[in-house]
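Q: My labmate handed me this sequence with no annotations at all. I'd like to see what the chain might look like in three dimensions before we decide whether it's worth expressing. Could you predict it?
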Amino acid sequence: WGSRSLYYLAKLLSGQLKSGEGYESLRPVVGIHIMDFDYFNVQEVIHGAEQPKGSDPLATEQYVWCFALRDRDQPQITMGEELQLHFLELPKALRVLSGPSRENPLRANPEARSGDAGSGDPGLVSKNFASALAFWVNFLKRWQEDQVMSSMNHPPVQKALNMLRAMSADEIEQQFAFERERALLIEQMELHAARAEGETAGILKGEAAGILKGKALGLEEGEAAGILKGEAAGILKGEAAGLQLALARLIASGMPEDQAREVLGLARDFGA
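A: Here is what I predict for the chain of 272 residues:
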């Protein structure tokens, strides 16, 4: 994850300049990664030293990280702010903010938990938290839980939640509109296909019948009359068969028969 983060960060920085532009026009690139897993193991980072017995394990669980270009021996000396990587580990943040740490006012007043009081839910962050980060962590992890979200009184989080709900509602409405449009399109395609199939079958059948009948008469006039009469009869018969097929398809797709007949312009006694 770290290598990929560095790669995309450097790519964003190098991609700013076009041919002939100077380096002074570079703007800082800040990578912000909100992770739903633990990435940094603080216990191992601290020179592999074991923590004293009885110490609070949450005290070493740093969950917000910021990396920049600094000198190894004198970290106060930097190479500017052009490249920065920020990481927020949500699982650690919830453990620390909801645990017995200095950042959590519930440590002094365990009964101050709001909403789901006394449930022992370790992920629920009190709405009395002064830290805005606590509200955002809770929002990012549990925005789908209505009971938890209803206990949040942090205006920026409520605004984000309302925007998210509005976007979801718009997506559902767009999906309904898409399904309706697709159903109408399929209906029209089936209707046109049935008509075309009926016309083709009718023309072929009518031509064959007319030619045979005309040849039987053995007269040029008979041939012409037979072909024309056969074509007309065949086309009408073919269209009727095509409409009957379209009616059956629409009914099979779930459309009421009366509505299907109305769509196709058919009388009630058609095909009866």
